[in-house]
Specification:
Helix content: 40-55%
Order of helices and strands: HHEEEHEEHHHHHHEEEEHHHHHH
Radius of gyration: 21 Å
Strand content: 5-15%
Distance between the termini: 46 Å
Largest sheet: 5 strands, antiparallel
Number of helices: 15
Strand order of the largest sheet: 1-2-3-5-4
Shape: globular
Structural class: alpha+beta
């Protein structure tokens, strides 16, 4: 497929020149540049994404570099929502990451593992962000349909712990100024600004209708169907309650820690050794558990998550403790309290999975625009999920493993 018209319209020579100078310095001289496709169709639900390949000279030597550009999608009627989430990501890179990294540098910790941002713009209709191309540095994405194994999961959980710990340390520096007041990126909750074919309450309600049909077709899921029907009238209220940030668990969250927003680097034996986290359009201040619940329930199969859950939470807590101790601060909660918080916020993890897991295991050739909320698009998505019950062997075991786990904990009852 071709580079989108939106990318071609906003990525101008001035933008490319500014990105190059930001990254390589004023002595870098632009020679030529091209835009290339970078992701498969529908990989970026809220962005149009491309690769910008640049030829330049520096100190008389010919060089080449490439950047990944994200721009607002070509949707005319919902520009305000996309502008809001683009502003969140741009401000996260411009303000929050430098502040968090300054704290980590002060205690001898490495910077947080996000790609370098070389250019951003919030000009209405031309919102964009330009990032270093991590694939050129040897990072790659895992197959989202298969899920993440334990080795990859530990890397992600340890990096989430570093993000959360840096947030706690930063808050401790200015205890009377909440981080949500300090940083613009954290002041709007994206689900409350959602307006694509209706508000987020409608979005959840529509998905739960589809979920009921999916479980009925699977058969043997009467208790889950009854629970979904019971909670549907208050689903949005319950969801918002899960996002209320209360000490001691309140931290800056990534907000969308799923497999397509994670890139891994490997050693010579093909073992994962490092992770980079992408896409900060859903960032918020919330409980540490919301990041953990989304990641562990949406991205891991039951045989990976269930026997290793205590190990995963212990590894997260150990990393958090290590960073906090380097910062001469006490960890505000024990491992046991973290485990209980994980259960107490379980509704959030369940609902995220019910809405997004079918698309996570959908085969590449069957991908669709899940944010197209026209009646025809909604019907097509529902029908496809029902077909997947019979034809996609990944769907049923993945989603059943989640609901069975939360039934055992009493959250689904």
């Amino acid at each position: 497929f071709a580079v989108s018209e939106g990318v071609l319209r906003v990525v101008t020579e001035d933008v490319v020149q500014a990105s190059l100078v930001s990254d390589k310095g004023a002595e870098a001289t632009l020679v030529s540049w091209t835009t290339e496709t970078f992701t498969a169709a529908y990989d970026g639900a809220t962005s149009e994404i491309a690769n910008v390949r640049i030829q330049y000279t520096l100190a008389g030597t010919a060089e080449e570099v490439s950047y990944v550009v994200k721009v607002t999608p070509s949707r005319a009627q919902e520009k305000e929502f996309y502008s809001i989430i683009f502003a969140k990501e741009c401000n996260f890179y411009a303000e929050i990451i430098p502040a968090l990294n300054a704290v980590l540098k002060g205690i001898g910790e490495k910077p947080l593992r996000f790609p370098k941002c070389v250019y951003s713009s919030l000009e209405p209709g031309k919102e964009m962000i330009m990032l270093e191309n991590l694939q050129e540095q040897g990072y790659s994405m895992q197959d989202r349909t298969v899920g993440i194994d334990a080795a990859h999961s530990l890397l992600v959980l340890q990096e989430l712990a570093r993000l959360h710990a840096a947030s706690l340390l930063l808050q401790a520096i200015t205890p009377h100024q909440p981080l949500v007041h300090r940083f613009q990126a954290l002041q709007k909750e994206w689900t409350k600004e959602f307006n694509i074919g209706g508000d987020f309450e409608t979005f959840i309600s529509n998905h739960l209708d589809d979920v009921v049909e999916m479980f009925e077709k699977m058969g043997g899921c009467e208790e889950v169907v009854a629970w979904v029907r019971k909670i549907k009238p208050e689903a949005w209220t319950l969801y918002k309650q899960q996002l209320v940030a209360t000490p001691p668990f309140a931290v800056i969250n990534h907000g969308d820690c799923w497999i397509n927003n994670l890139l891994f680097k490997y050693d010579k034996d093909k073992r994962p050794v490092e992770v980079k986290m992408l896409d900060l359009q859903c960032c918020r201040v919330a409980s540490v558990a919301t990041d953990l619940l989304l990641f562990l329930n949406l991205n891991l199969t039951g045989p990976v998550r269930r026997p290793n859950l205590n190990t995963f939470l212990a590894s997260y807590h150990a990393t958090l403790t290590s960073v906090m101790q380097k910062g001469s601060s006490i960890v505000p909660f024990t491992l046991e309290q973290l485990q209980q918080e994980y259960v107490d916020r379980g509704y959030y993890g369940i609902l995220e999975c019910l809405m997004w897991l079918p698309n996570t295991v959908r085969q590449p050739e069957d991908m669709m625009d899940i944010l197209d909320r026209t009646e025809d698009a909604r019907n097509a998505e529902r029908d496809d999920v029902l077909v997947m019950v019979d034809r996609n062997p990944l769907l049923k075991p993945r989603i059943i493993s989640v609901v069975e786990e939360w039934m055992e904990r009493g959250v689904i009852s």
